[in-house]
# Entry
Amino acid sequence: MTSISKSHAPPVPQGRTEPLLVRIVLIAIAVTFLTIFVVLPLVVVFAGAFARGVDAYLAALAEPEALSAIRLTLLVAAISVTLNLVFGVIAAWAVAKFDFPGKTLLVTLIDLPFSVSPVISGLVFVLLFGAQGYFGSWLAAHDIRILFAVPGIVLATTFVTFPFVARELIPLMQEQGTQEEEAAISLGASGLRTFLRVTIPNIKWGVLYGVLLCNARAMGEFGAVSVVSGHIRGETNTMPLLVEILYNEYQFVTSFAIASLLAMLALVTLIVKTILEGRLEEGQTARDD
Amino acid sequence: MTIEVRHLIKRFGTFTALDNVDLKVETGELVALLGPSGSGKTSLLRIIAGLDWPDAGEVRFDGEDALARGAGERQVGFVFQHYALFRHMNVFENVAFGLRVQPRAIRPNEARIRKRVMDLLELVQLDWLADRYPSQLSGGQRQRIALARALAIEPRILLLDEPFGALDAKVRKELRRWLRQLHEEIHVTSIFVTHDQEEALEVANRVVVMDKGKIEQIGTPAEVYDNPATPFVHGFIGESIVLPVQVSGGQMLLGDKVLDLDLRDARTGPSHLFIRRHDVTVLPPGGGVIDGDVKRVRAFGPTQRADIALHVGGAETLIEIDAPRDRDLKPGEIVSLQPRRYRIFAGA
# Structure
């Protein structure tokens, strides 16, 4: 973040900056661009949501289908974020603090979900668990439903959001090195104690940052979830899926009302993210020797 | 507590960090492991601490097998080059850490912990910093806190890895003297690693000179300085002039010039003549064993340092000498040099 110069900054002498006209043009381009691509869409979402007033907005959100989608989205996000939190911390710990064969491969695999289209990610699970899939007949025989049910949505979401926590933590932990852990061990602390008292406190802001991004993506995921969900109304529709369905059925107020919730999630995420970035930077400067 | 290391071997891939190392450290000694980077000194220290494991060999504390115990069970205080203070804990909690993680049965109560930590902070003269965080301290302060933290567990052995390596020259000198005094006070068997010969010679009772995973020489600072056992030690400790010479027919030849020096028991064949820079007397031309041109002179402090070109077989060999300032050397002057002390090591 660049800090804005203090109010008493001396005027910039001629020649050190661009001519006035150039400055105006450049600023105008930036503002126009931001308006069209960021501000307008946000405004449109909220305008659409409140088109028939606050009462209609609240009523739209109180519909059983909407409530069910909100509940499902929260549930799926809670499970996948927890899974990825546990996995991410363990993977980052292993990659950053130890050397073992296959480390590069593991790091590459962690990144895989970022490089694969979400639709493909969804299809992978159809291939695995679908009626014609590898485990399809076995699952059907044991009456276990994964596809077109909550477990499938959780799996797809977890897969897509897999890298967030690990990716955030690996460079942070690599930079911090292993000396503090070694110091703790030589002072007589157990491995678990060292992890809880030394490692975790050093990475807590990084963990929160990763969780935040992971959560935003988990709640907003459309492609992979769309493939595995089956769009069963009131059962397997998450918020992003419901927004699309309602929009296609011309139920604009309800559609935009739910979209506005997602937009608000994005705004909150942005604000918290900015705060966390400040904390992370503080942590970084505190580390300087 | 004595430390004994036998036949220690440590490899990293194809690189041999320790090549059959034997070392014995007596109770209460302050030993320096001195060597260039890559000489294996830090590997040796980390293996003694239990932070690394050897591929072969033994480590014994008072005769007892230390390799059978993990780092945390060896009661070893370890001080890291970059301090490794717990950055999210204040100074007090850093020092208290080793006490707080002790098993409940032997862990002191809060009042005892407080007393012990404050005593240690007084010992390192930083009791007024108890509430600060590591990031608020200077390098020298951080290193003293790291030392207090290592001492909190009442270590039987204190190991320090380049303890002053990250500090500036003035602080380093102060801390050296201070470490020396501290060791006289608490008398715990200590080993420190350094690549700085001055530090090793000034602080340690005994110096272990290492190169390429092997111990080159073990001795008191005076021994390793005055009687280097190998060409490496002569070249590494103190400033040396090294000249390639040929010993044959009872004569020493530098190129085509005969050097009129006592050969002692030097063997016939290619050898190296080692002379300390300050062990050279400057005489008028023809008065010493070899003549040379003064090229450049830097005069500061009690001595002057001069680059002198020796003309050997048509080529020019540049050497540096330290001479007293009783007579100022001038560039362009021709002088003759006479070594007062020297060593001849066989080998090309």
Summary: The longest strand of chain B covers residues 15-25. Chain B has a mean pLDDT of 90. The two ends of chain B are 43 Å apart (CA to CA).
